[in-house]
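2024-03-11 09:14:02 INFO queue: dequeued item Pyrimidine-specific ribonucleoside hydrolase, len=314
2024-03-11 09:14:02 INFO validating residues
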Amino acid sequence: MKPVILDVDTGLDDACALLLAARHPELDLKAVTCVGGNVGIDDVVRNTLTVLDAAGRPDVPVARGAAVPLIQPVRSARHVHGEDGLGDLDWPRSTRSTDPRHAVELLRDVLLDAAATGELITWIPLAPLTNIALLLRTYPEAARGLREIVFMGGAAGIGNATAAAEFNIWTDPEAAAIVLAAARDLGIAVTMYGLDVFYDVVVTLEQARALSGSPSAELACKLIEKRSERYQSDGGSIGDGGAVCAVIDPSGLTTQEYPVRIELSGSWSRGRTIVDTRGASDVANDPHGPAATIRVATAVDGKRYAELWLATVS
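2024-03-11 09:14:37 INFO prediction written
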């Protein structure tokens, strides 16, 4: 089994990812940490506990993390995810409590335990990278417990929060810049699962409505119905769930290594991921110095990942 940690701002697509990670037999979900993003931190925590209960995984520790970005004001995406962040589904809510530790402390403890045992962890952030930045700057020694980071965020050429920037990076670009710099300095392998592939793993309404027989399957159906309604289509992308698919089945994702920077200024471009496709000589002589070189997702086998998700959540 692959040990994993998810960091989430649980809206509809994070819920798709949580169901997959919680139920797939090849993943050992060690913990889930929460950060403000799609909705406020209280709703994120409530949604996360609710989805894990539906997945039959009340054993997974959940910790409350950063409520706001490092510098800029918090900005939600309730227009996409509903007022409660879970599509206003009126789904039965969890009654359990979070882990008493702050997310950063829970992450530190789990990663240091992994370093001690040699069972290295894949970290899957699906939200603004605030918690990850805080952890890597406060407890850099915890990186010894990491195998890799596979994050949903950014894009090589498009945006959604703005014309230039993807929502997770745009929400806390300073955190994203810190994470890339820390990964470069600490030797952490990073994969960016961005908007270039985000929309390409689609479950049709017909496929979703065939799901039944368990709370996980029924919630999965409702999530796709809501995403279909939001985008006025006959199906819905599993969004963040694709990043979890990429950890389970890496061969379904095409990546290429590029230096990547985060734009921290600019009236129209703040939060953009600058994917550097220049030749090696130009990159080596960049006046800004070396950037973090990471794997950037360029294509995905959407049908393969959709089938993986359906088989697991059902």
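2024-03-11 09:14:37 INFO annotate: DSSP finds 13 helices and eleven strands in the chain.
2024-03-11 09:14:38 INFO item closed
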